[in-house]
Specification:
heterodimer, A: about 70 residues, alpha+beta, SH3 type barrels, globular, B: about 350 residues, alpha/beta, Rossmann fold, five-stranded parallel beta sheet, 17 helices, 11 strands
Chain lengths: ~70, ~350
């Protein structure tokens, strides 16, 4: 439930943004990170960007997440 | 990882019990065998970190009652679907004709309310990671002038629960604190734990190396007798947290007393909608009195969640209670301690 996925911001339009990562693209809300910019990596939880994350570390986290999701699914 | 395990042993601290309080940590620890890796040095226990698991039966019963009695469309995050109330679950109710829709984001429930005249009710389950989004949904519903959208708030907050654990008779020598709740509320929210209770605390990321690092830092704090709140998950957590998310939380919700499965009532550990948003509060909109009912016979979810027993200590574990036919929430939830033990330890 607390699972938050690192994704990269592709575009921002008001309170909506398009993000990509883990082989998917999503439209999410940016109300909780109002100054988010294109190109930034963010943690996405239940349709919201909840925090910024360092890009390099994000890449590491993604690898782990893909493994974990593969195991649970 | 082996290097970290070695470094942990080299602190010379042993016989300590550390508790993680996050469902994702429960899963990561089980998946990567951290408990056995740490055997002999540290006892790693699971606490009430799975918001699905700590939602009391009565809240589920209330939510279902709205569907059965009022014909509302019930919307919920997916992990609640199979969690048993005292008589039914969302999944079973759906099979009996209740309109249950799983949403990925609470904004989907708001959009749904725009497209129908029927009542749409969102089950507000989750800790501080999830509640701000629900707050945004309520504000959005207000902006759009919706008259058919409401939230049954069952949110819970971590600091009060941690205080209840720290001041209880449950033996815990340090907390591995949740990563994403902390990204929202900030490390500062936990400072009362070392200050008032001498409790070592480390906010950990979700990779196995993160958690082992957190354990090492906790043992170092214990050895130096210098408890504090340290951030291991620095790539996402700061002392202040996410101010915008905190602002939404404070605007839409206020603290209230809440019942946690396994811990009982904890003062100020829940969130309810403020009066300004009363028309979006399903508890006020619908008549939802349901009777108290006992937990299923033999189910030890409550004790598991409080860290008093481990899942295999429950007589139902692996026999009457498995992921395919779960009895209690800890086995149903993908982040429940019982599900984690079952899946990764046979």
């Amino acid at each position: 439930m607390c699972l938050a996925v690192p994704m990269q911001v592709v575009s921002v339009e008001g309170e909506r943004a398009e993000v990509q990562g883990a082989g998917t693209r999503r439209r999410i809300r940016t109300d909780l990170l109002p100054d988010v910019q294109t190109g930034e990596w963010v943690l996405v939880h239940a349709g919201f960007a909840i925090e910024r994350i360092d890009a390099e570390e994000a890449a590491e986290s993604m690898k782990l997440l893909e493994e974990m999701l593969g195991a649970v699914g | 990882m082996r290097g970290l395990a070695q470094a942990i042993r080299e602190t010379g601290v042993s016989g300590k019990r550390l508790m993680e309080v996050c469902g994702t940590h429960t899963m990561a620890a089980a998946r990567f065998g951290l408990r056995s890796l740490l055997e002999g040095t540290v006892r790693l226990s699971s606490g009430p970190g799975c918001p699905v698991c700590v939602t009391p039966q009565k809240d589920i019963d209330r939510f279902l009652a709205i569907g059965f009695a009022h014909g509302a469309i019930l919307t919920s995050f997916g992990d609640m679907l199979r969690v048993p109330g005292s008589e039914s679950s969302l999944e079973e109710a759906r099979a009996q004709g209740v309109d249950v829709r799983i949403v990925y984001s609470c904004m989907d429930a708001v959009d749904l309310a725009c497209e129908t005249d029927r009542e749409v009710v969102l089950f507000g389950v989750g800790f501080e990671t999830t509640a701000p989004g629900v707050g945004v949904a309520v504000v959005e519903a207000q902006k759009r002038g919706l008259r058919n959208f409401s939230v049954l708030a069952a949110h819970k907050t971590m600091p009060a629960a941690l205080e209840a654990l720290a001041s209880s008779d449950i033996e815990v020598h340090g907390f591995i604190l949740p990563g994403h709740v902390s990204a929202i509320i900030g490390a500062g929210a936990y400072e009362f734990l070392p200050e008032r209770y001498g409790m070592p605390c480390v906010i950990s990321g979700f990779e196995p190396a993160d958690m082992l690092q957190a354990v090492k830092v906790l043992l170092e704090q214990i050895k130096a007798q210098q408890p504090k709140v340290e951030i291991q998950y620095s790539r996402a957590v700061s002392r202040e947290g996410n101010r915008a998310a905190q602002a939404v939380l404070n605007r839409v919700f206020e603290p209230c007393d809440a019942v946690w499965r396994g811990l009982g009532m904890i003062e100020g550990s829940g969130l309810r909608l403020r009066d300004e948003f009363a028309q979006f509060d399903a508890a006020k909109r619908f008549d939802v009195e349901v009777p108290d009912r006992p937990e299923p016979a033999g189910c030890l979810c409550g004790q598991v969640l409080a860290g008093r027993v481990d899942p295999p200590d429950c007589s139902l574990f692996g026999e009457a209670c498995t992921p395919e036919h779960p009895v209690g929430a800890c086995m149903v939830s993908s982040e429940g301690a019982c599900a984690a033990w079952y899946r990764y330890r046979g």
